[in-house]
Structure formats: C-alpha cells, structure tokens
C-alpha cells in the first residue's frame, strides 16, 4: 500500500467539499469520528496547531456527514450530543440554511 504523501488543511477541506468550517472542526474534535490515521494533527508552533486530512480522511469525513444527516435530528442532533456551544449551533445551522 502506498503511503500518503500529502494532506489537506481543515480550512481547505471545508472549501473543497462545501461544508461549514465550524462543523468540520466539531467533527474533528473527536478522533473517533474519522477513520484512524486519516486525520493528522500538525504542530506548527502555535497552541492549536493545524488539523489536516488525507484523501481517505476527506472520504471518511464525507461519509460521517452523510450518516449524520440520515440520523433522527440530523446534524443539529449531532451537535447537541457533542455538547456544542448553542451559539455555534445557530451559526452552523444558519450557514447550512443558506446553501
């Protein structure tokens, strides 16, 4: 199996797949949501670092989103279950309503 030689920043992935960055950050905050090894944290000297995804990680993220949208309550329920900040939920859901 070939090794992954490039990764995509979470910001770029949000643009690439047309998803809300805050939603992707919420999903990525729990590494169990993405296949093991497909999400990579890059230390860049800041306290936060950078979250990146491999090609497989992007696929895993899209599969997770498709699954979440099929659940009762959909993305909103996922965010509630993750104990996401209510203001963040409002922003994410308002952004999804625009698209």
Query: Tell me about the biggest sheet?
Result: 3 strands, antiparallel
Give the structural class. mainly alpha
What's the total number of strands? Answer: 3
What's the end-to-end separation, in Å? 38 Å
Taken in chain order, the helices and strands follow as EHHEEHHH
**Radius of gyration from the CA trace?**
14 Å
- How much helicity do the residues have? 40-55%
Q: Which whole number gives the mean pLDDT?
A: 92
How many alpha or pi helices? 5
> What's the overall geometry?
globular
Please mark out the parts with pLDDT under 50 across 5 or more consecutive residues, or reply none. Answer: none
Strand order across the largest sheet: 1-3-2
What's the domain count? 1
Strand residue percentage: 5-15%
How is the quaternary structure best described? single chain
């Amino acid at each position: 199996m070939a090794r992954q030689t490039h990764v995509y920043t979470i910001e770029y992935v949000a643009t690439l797949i047309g998803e809300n960055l805050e939603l992707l950050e919420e999903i990525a905050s729990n590494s169990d949501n993405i296949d093991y090894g497909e999400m990579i944290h890059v230390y860049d000297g800041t306290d936060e670092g950078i979250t990146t995804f491999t090609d497989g990680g992007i696929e895993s993220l899209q599969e997770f989103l498709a699954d979440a949208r099929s659940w009762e309550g959909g993305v909103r329920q996922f965010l509630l279950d993750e104990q996401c900040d209510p203001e963040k939920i409002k922003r994410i859901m308002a952004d999804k309503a625009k698209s």
